Hints:
The chain is α/β, with parallel strands linked by helices. The chain is built from five helices and five strands; from the N terminus they run αβαβαβαβαβ. The longest helix is centred in the first third of the chain and has 10 residues, at 37-46. It is globular, with a radius of gyration of 14 Å.
Amino acid sequence: AALTAERCNGWRCLSYLWLGPHKLMQRGVGAECGIDDEGIDFIASACTLLQDLTVASFHLTDASVDSCVRRLRELRRLRLSGAITDECFQLLRSVAKQPRLESFSLWFSGVTPAALEQARWDMPWTYFDVELE
């Protein structure tokens, strides 16, 4: 069944959430979930206690990263896939206090090696696991 706003409404106390198939993170597997930036924005506003969020969807952009780092103040691990670019690192840097983010992972993104290296220098407290093409 499709994930709707009404279904997410009861999730306010979730600490861990994984959306989409695990196999998406492996090359050659095309399955995915259909959640997009609007869905991530809703989850980030409804599930503010999330510590670990994994979303396997090709429909995500930098807007999803923005929603997560600005609203999920307890977030320790964020793993996303989609059309996420170098701008996501600017978003991470611009958030004055995201004290708990320990790990940031991306699959099938448009991040460049130079931006990733700069992010590692700028935010040494965060482990970056980014798949580069």
